[in-house]
Amino acid sequence: MNAIEVTGVTKKYSEITALDRLSLAIESGSTFGLLGTNGAGKSTLFKLLVGHIRPDDGTVSVAGTDVATAGPELRSIVGYLPEHAGFPPSLTGREVLEFHARMHSLPDAASRIDAVLSVVGLSDAADRCVGGYSNGMTRRLGLAAALLSRPRILLLDEPTAGLDPRGVADFHRVIERLDAQSDLTVVISSHVLTEIESLCERIAILHGGQLCTVGDIDGLRREVTDDVRVRLRLGDAASADSIQTIVSAFDASVHSTDHDGDVVFVDCDPEDVPQLLTELTEAVTIDGYDVREPGLERVFEQVLSEAEQDSQPRQSAESSEQLRTVSHDE
Amino acid sequence: MSEDQTAHSSTEPGGGTVTAADRSFETSSQTVVAFAGQTLTIAQLEYRLSLRSRWTLALTALFGLLSLLVVGFGGSSAGPFRVDAVVVSLASLATYLVPLAALVYGYDTIVGAEETGWLDMVFALPVSRRRVVVGAFLGRATSLAGATAIGFGLGGLVLFVRVDTVPWGLYADVLFGAVTLGLAFLALGVLVSTVAAEKTHALGIALLVWAWLVFGHDLAALGLVAAFDLPNVMLTGLVLANPIDIFRVFVLSGLEITGSGMAAVVTGTALSTTVLLGGAMAWVVLPVSVAAQLIHRRSL
After folding, report:
1. In what residue span(s) does the ABC transporter domain sit (chain A) (predicted)?
2. What residues of A are in contact with residue B300 (Cβ under 8 Å)?
């Protein structure tokens, strides 16, 4: 069963199309990642899901209920951490959660509040004013508020934006713990690809308000490339040119090379890696190397470049059409 | 309506019979309780926030200081102490100060919460936006009413000490009128806050509203009165179209000193206390009701 179904949704802000005929389904109990550049439509999609805005066209349903026609009760099963969550600075963290608990009419508010404060690591700071919280603590309080009602669907918009590495790690631990609950659906948007890669099973990539691709991460990796990336650290940066000569012999299997100072990247078929390394170590001094599976970054880059290529002919066609219209008007 | 609600009657586990009408009543009463519960929760939070901000304390001190000054200066002039003159001075002070204070108190209710990211959190809760607006108004209204009553009440206390026979009814009218005037302008502030896209826009609109109702409306109305022989019903309409004029007429109609502006023109007309109170209540309720409707159009 799908926890979220978005069908043919278009949302415009005056002249700007934030979402363009987007259709997407997210399975119950999964952890789903939303990727896209700035302005891709991720936050707009979250706002539609939580009912902050309404689509100009299409339907958005959460837990089988159309958000447009549902009452506010639907939000009792949805926890939401907005990208720019904020709290009145004169309230304490506990008071914020008490307010949330009362709005949800939670019967065992005190124990739940203590529990979520413990989960997000804010127990010690619970009785301090939010105005004195760091950015990371504010984000964690937002997560605590979203978790308080034990929602079936958790929407996290850029949850780790602005957090230091330790804050990010803590956040990941919380999400991983939540992931163990089989019935909880988590949707995370992020610019940090490694974060999505480590937390999510399935992803969607948005660009210009359109869905570019959706699927499980491994499947998308395989779709994009079977290559592995060999990263070589050279003893002498000048020998990078020599490497170019050597890898050109592997014409059929080496698909790209690049270098950054004394580090050379070679993308090639996994079967050719041993022979390539043998020949390279005979020819140049190599201080170290590693071999990596293609990351989500390559999937993301390729999908986006394809999307941009697709949109360019359409944009130029639209421009030509506009020019023709203008000349007709004149 | 759910299947349970459409059933004509059924037997409760305890043996009693529950009809559809009973269930309908229960459902509607539960809805009312839920509405009141969530609205009061928001009102309590807003009240707590307003008490913790320095605004409420500052307003109380300002109102108190100025009312004490008015009462003090009222007694410093040569001749007998004129209680009615003090009341008129207090009323004049209230017509300028209370609307401005209330608008500034209310202009950021919604748009300010949106800019800090708090509204995004609150609207994601299982509560209708209408309740959020009404609750926020009620919370701020409580603290503003308290600040106004305490501030202007201080002047009354001093008056009580200085004068043997204080016309308490008259002073109570000023106090009640000032509180109601504040609530009306707070309601306008909440409405402005609901429609404005940014806090700075809201402040600008609030100041324009203040300038119009304090100066512009009276000038325009007096121009009409001077140019045309307006019937009483038109004069009544002009008074009811401005909460400040309602306040002036309400407070000053019992005095020989009539004050200024439209109040001086209409104190002799047949504007009853009931009509004035109805008009004042409308100025409190209508802006909040409109805001509660318009909040649904607001995109976060």
Report:
1. 4-233
2. 47, 52-53
CA distances to B122, B181, B244 from A133, in Å: 19, 39, 43
Contacts of B127 in chain A (CB under 8 A): 72, 103
Residue found under tokens 């999505």: A196
In this structure, is residue A327 part of a structural domain? no
CB-CB under 8 Å, B123 with A103: no
Domain membership of residue A98 (yes or no) is: yes
Query: What b-and-e string marks burial along A12-32, b requiring 16 or more CB atoms within 10 Å of the CB?
Result: eeeeebbbbebebebebbbbb
What percent of chain A is modeled with pLDDT above 90? 41
Write the residue in A86, A90, A103 that is nearest to B125 by C-beta: A103
Q: Chain A contact for B29, CB < 8 A?
A: no
CB A26 within 8 A of CB A78: no
Enter the tokens of residue B53.
């901000």
- With CA atoms as reference, the chain B residue closest to A74 would be B126
Query: Is it the case that residue A12 has pLDDT exceeding 80?
Result: yes
Phi, psi of B61 (to 5 degrees): -65, -45
Contacts of B41 in chain A (CB under 8 A): 99, 102-103
Do A171 and A141 contact (CB within 8 A), yes or no?
no
**Do residues A255 and A214 both lie within one domain?**
no
pLDDT tens across B224-271, in order?
888 888 788 888 888 899 999 999 888 877 666 555 556 666 655 567
- Residue-wise pLDDT for B70-116, tens only, equals 888 765 555 556 777 888 888 888 999 999 999 999 999 999 999 99
* Inter-chain residue contact B118 with A102, CB threshold 8 Å: no
Which CATH number covers residue A162? 3.40.50.300
Q: How far, CA to CA in Å, does A178 sit from each of A76, A79, A101, A126, A187?
A: 18, 13, 20, 21, 12
Query: What's the N-to-C CA distance of chain A in angstroms?
Result: 55
A72 lies in the same domain as A174: yes
pTM, to two decimals: 0.81
Question: Which DSSP state fits A99?
Answer: H
Q: Compare CB distances from A52 to B41, B52, B123 and report the shortest one's residue.
A: B123
Tell me what the pLDDT averaged over chain A comes to: 85
Question: Which SS3 state, helix, strand or coil, does residue B44 take?
Answer: helix
Does any domain span residue A317?
A: no
Domain shared by A238 and A181, yes or no = no
Burial class (CB in 10 A: 0-12, 13-18, 19+), B5: exposed
Sign of CA dihedral B158, B159, B161, B167: negative
Q: Which domain holds residue A109?
A: 1-220
pLDDT at B254: 65
Q: B167: buried, middle or exposed (CB in 10 Å: 19+, 13-18, 0-12)?
A: middle
CATH number of the domain at A234, please. Answer: 3.30.70.1150
Please report, for residues A279, B63, B207, B279, the alpha-carbon distance to residue B148 in angstroms, rounded to integers and kept in the order given. Answer: 87, 7, 20, 20
Task: Taking residues B127-155, report their average pLDDT.
Answer: 95
| Residue A10 counted as domain residue | yes
